[in-house]
Write a structure and sequence with these properties.
Elements lengths: L2 E2 L5 H11 L2 E3 L11 E3 L1 H20 L4 E3 L8 H7 L1 H4 L1 E6 L6 E3 L22 E4 L2 E4 L9 E4 L4 H5 L2 H8 L5 E10 L14 E11 L4 H18 L7 E5 L11 E9 L2 E12 L1 H10 L5 E2 L6 E2 L2 E8 H12 E5 L5 E5 L10 E5 L6 H13 L4 E3 L5 H11 L3 E5 L1 H6 L1 E6 L5 E5 L3 H10 L5
Parallel strand pairs: 4-10, 20-21, 20-22
Antiparallel strand pairs: 1-18, 2-3, 5-6, 5-7, 8-9, 10-11, 11-17, 12-13, 13-14, 14-17, 15-16, 18-19, 22-23, 23-24
Organism: Marispirochaeta aestuarii
Subunit structure: Homodimer.
Enzyme class: ligase
Length: 445
Amino acid sequence: MAEKTAEVTMDKLVSLCKRRGFVFQSSEIYGGLSSAWDYGPMGVELKKNIQNFWWKEMTQLHENIVGLDAAIMMHPRVWEASGHVANFSDPLVDCKECKNRFRADHIDLSAPCPVCGNSGTFTEPRQFNLMFQTHLGPVKDDKNIVYLRPETAQGIFVNFRNVVQTSRVKIPFGIAQVGKAFRNEIVTKNFIFRTCEFEQMEMQYFVKPGSDDEWFNYWRERRMGYYEKLGIRGDRLRWHQHGPDELAHYAKDAYDIEYLFPMGWQELEGVHNRTDFDLGRHQEFSGKDQTYLDEETRERYVPYVIETSAGLTRSVLMVLSDAYEEEQLEDGDLRTVMRFHPAVAPITVAILPLVKKDGIAELAREIEAELREDFNVFYDQSGAIGRRYRRQDEGGTPYCVTVDYDSKEDGTVTLRFRDSMEQVRVHRSELAARIRKEIKEYKRV
């Protein structure tokens, strides 16, 4: 039996992500950019798989939720209507001695500077808008100001009429979107948790006013259930309800799903009752009708919106944090293992020929080709088989297939399971079906 050692720390996680090719510092050869990160060969597969897992959950499994991919740059009036121009800002102070900048609501302004220790050195608080501003066209003019979107939700709201008219959807229905967003965060910290450039997975669910509380509770239950399907440990998830001082200007009620990251409990996803604020404001600012006509009752109204908003990049950090384990084996070895759900693991199956000679490697290549059509496959013939197993464990590969001399004789291979390290013999003709079955029935050990 393996004995689990201490919990993951952020330092261990960052080290593994660099070592295994999950996440690299952006522009590292130039000293890096603290607010940006690049996803390596393993990280891009993990992020894509998590996105696909979410997309299937929110669209394929719901006949009344459709997808959208809105532009990053939008008409500047969109952000006036949404309240971002007026409200999307943080109060900032600077220390006149060490020149460091702080959120005024995150420090005690009557205390010494937390960096240099000097007292009475803070400037007066001033508001700083978090949207990145640029200009569209060759002339840098105030008339050409546009913003990099700070959220993906507004792209859904301004396309509400287009979707209703083209998709024949009826309320209640949802619009889902995954995309980049940009916020000029003053403090970027905790690895990929808070960055200036990030990706969101959002779904806006349009409902009849008066039914919003029912649908709000429905989506709270569905979204927490999603993380169980993803294989996330339930004792690391909890709800946090926004108090009166926390509610956004558009929200009637709001809950956050929080996860116990290495740095403590932090927001992972929000479920919000946005009422009719967004469509009402866009109707006001654009002059275009945003009401919905119920064909059965002939009633016309501005729909309420229930929002589910999750960070894709935060979800990557959550999955990495939740998967990481160190185990002390009976033989004294320390095993680092990433217990990803097989549906999101960067590599699903590793093909490992026991030796390179006597046609074993050639046979292994044949099996690799057979599986590559259905799975993300990795081939490795370098080093002792135990060492190769450990490499795959650390990368989170759930299944290893070892091809040996018996494989030439009877067509069977050894299928090894990452979590339990159990090994079984399976005929190569049944291998793909067995792996699909294991993925579907996966339960974390």
